[in-house]
Fold this protein.
Amino acid sequence: MTTRVLLGNEAIGRGIVEAGCAVAAAYPGTPASEIQEAVAAFAREGALPIHVEWSVNEKIAYEVALAASYTGKRAAVSMKQVGLNAAADPFMRSAYLGVKGGFLVVSADDPGPHSSQTEQDSRFFAMFAKIPVLDPGSPREAKAMVQMAFTLSEAYEIPVMLRPTTRVCHARQAVPLETPVPLARVARFEKDPTRWAATPRAVLTLHRGLTEKLARLAADPALAPIFLAGDGRLPRTGLIGSGVAFAHARDVLEELGLGTALDLYQVRVPYPLAPSLAEAVRGRYDRLLVIEESYPVIELQLRERGVEGRLSGLVPAEGELTPERLRGILGRFLGLPASPTPPATAAAPGARPTLCAGCGHRAAFYAIRQTFPRGIFPGDIGCYTLGVNLGAVDTCHCMGAGISQAAGFYHAYAQDGPDFPTIVATIGDSTFFHSGIPALANAVSQQARFILVILDNGTTAMTGHQPTPALGSPPVPIRNVVRGVGVGFLRELDPYDLRAFTACLIEADRYMRSEGGGVAVVIASHPCVLQVGPTEGGAAHPFEVTEECTGCEACLADVECPAMRWDEATGRVVIAAAVCNGCGVCVTVCPVEAIVPAEGGRR
Amino acid sequence: MRQRIVVSGLGGQGVLFLTRILAEAALHAGEEVLTSETHGMAQRGGAVVSTVKVGPFHGPLLSPGEAEVGLFLVPENLAVHGHFLRPDGLAFVNAATSTGHSTLDAAAVAAAAGAPRSVNLVLLGFAAGRGGLFSPPEGFETAIRVVTPVRHQAQNLAAFSAGVAAAS
């Protein structure tokens, strides 16, 4: 057995491979993306014949993996927590119908949130679906729980969820590795229409079976909370916790010199909660606190009087339980004096994220904003949500919503007369495949009128460059899909050519408003500069600022390029040649033509 | 050995890479280690921070005022993440001008070493060379070899060594 430092997500991916998983499907999203990357990497490393796919969305990933488990093979699906919203339909029913081969659902939560549109708790979703959920507190624990989940899933013929949070997914720790042993199972789907095609009457029977499974599972002694008895310094005092919040609570207690002073219970299976926990704590404590992220899942099931936590108001209802916040919570719970010196806080918020230098999206957003100063700009989810910094993204809701919102804005405004504002929706290529296609078919068939700019950089850039179906084999070109749903105006061009791109937007607007017009689609194609670099990405020389610069800062405000900064010493804007990718958008913006190709020409 | 380190920079500067090297070096030193990293949107040039906890800890995050060491790849981030340092904590800062902490123009050193993008490794070498970290420089050289693809090894080791040299 060897040990390797792994990211939490890599540990989960390694666990999936070691467990003999045969089919792994996923859609990327922070903080879950590296799980599937790791499955692919470890499968390659061990030359294991695992089917690893980046599906077009989480619902489809879920269904692909679920059917594989029907054949008796082990299967896994991984996603971020809001991905589970997209997969809710197959998720809910899969609890009733159950599985054959072990079936693992990884849903990574993001308390904070750091990179998500909600800080929802997937454990609550598991409880809603009546699916057991495991809550790891570290990469090492996460890997061990993957094995535990597959075993449980097969023993009870039920999907099992692993719910890591950002601080587990993106933590690193030395993790013991075992040799993956292929399970040598042959696919065998045993037909049983009363189960796999259950009609409502059969569903009731299946539901009863599910309730019975959950009761047995909750009473399984192997899944009971881990009890760490205190040394009596804080008598009749206990803390129940799960996940990384429990780990951080232990660090805080140790820092206070109270690491062993009270009784600790680590809950590994927050749902279904072991009835033995309630029995163990009943009448035993004067003070009992529940620490969990991010909703009161354990607390609601515990139903004991006098328990402190979110329901009692001691633990804040929102936000991540950082060590700093836990210090305050534990201090109030234990009646400790506040720290003699108030903890220092950050003096500055820090630089905000921005599109990369030379990103094709910047050119497209600049043109959209300049061409339609009174426009409405529904946006979507990806790097290009950063178009909000450029005033070219007015909404961001969930995957694919920008297209449906554009239709909704149109129908609301069009009722008031023909002088409706130009609506320009933007969506990335991966998001278009994820949820944009049904939205576009709907908009076309409902005779909505707006411009849709598909920002095609040939990859899923935000989450680490996963492929899209347009890069599949055989490829599914975006233009074919757009034509296929009946769009009457389609152009495809590189937004680096700002003049042509702007002319195209004006043409699209004219079509959209014409008799017989409808949705106009412009595919803005420019490869992601993080993938291809400056030389293959189009223009190949950096730009520089001459002495003509008046210091008006128009370029800094309208282009917000990380290669440009204000230089106090010269009172001018300067461009860092090492960062500039030569897109030339800033050249167009400068009112005094002070931005020119740098000396030295091409590089 | 217990050491809590905060690594602060901008997305794209190699904060994640530095975090991996610190974790790997801890493993080679026979220590337990937990790190936490920033992924996602902030990596697009925003302020990012990693934490590294060497020793018998349970969770990866730090409280303000706990870090014994800080590595700051841009001086502006002292105002953003400097509060994680203990009052007696050591900050190593990449900056062209003095910051009141151990400061090195790591960008200039990296450029002179022929590795302009390796400001992170120069700063790491500087901190290790000053004896500020849980492992001597040799431990980090081993870690760099483990973590770096072969084609970048010589350049990365050169950048690290340049940082160590700048410490004396």
About this structure: Chain A touches chain B through 50 residues (CB under 8 Å). Chain A is about 40% helix and 15% strand. The longest helix of chain A spans residues 200-218. The radius of gyration of chain A is 27 Å.
